[in-house]
Design goal:
mainly alpha, 2 domains, coiled coil
Length: 210
Amino acid sequence: MQGDLIKVRQSYAEVLATQRRLQTQKEQADKMAEDWYKRAEMAVEKGDDELAKEALTRRQTSVTKASDLGAQIDAMTGNVEKLFESVKALEAKISQAKEEKEQLIARARTAKTTAQVNEMLSDVTSVGSTGAFDRMKEKVEMLETRAEVSQGLLPEAQASGSLEDRFKQLEAGSAVDDELAKMKGKKALTENSAIDDELAAMRKKLQDTH
């Protein structure tokens, strides 16, 4: 089809060039006829009838030539218009064919992609891939939950964690207090024993003196 368009365009260009060339020749013949008529008038004014007749004869030849050229131009006008319409029609067909080709290519690519996606989905939903798919889903959900916790999107969990920390601190404080009390009691007991021993020594020394 592209080759036909090239041929029609060439024919159209050739016919159009010929028509323009004939039009130029006709305009030249018309001008020549006008010039010979003016010369004939000038010869008559000068009283030279023989020269006037010769000028009129030449004028008639130019008029006849211009008339013939005009007829050829008129005949070619129809052919030029038909060739022009043929060029436009072929261009429209080629443009339409190009669009249809692009649409078919797009449809083929879409069909190929759809087939690939369906094949992937078929693999995912198969028995062997179901477990892997579930594990992937669990991992994603776990990551989402961690992200929510880190962003403070679970206030109850945070509050519970804070309360747990407070109880742990309280328990740790109680243990420290108990240990401190034991140390104080032990120290007090030690101090009392030392005082008692010192008092007994003083009493014994006093008795020995008497």
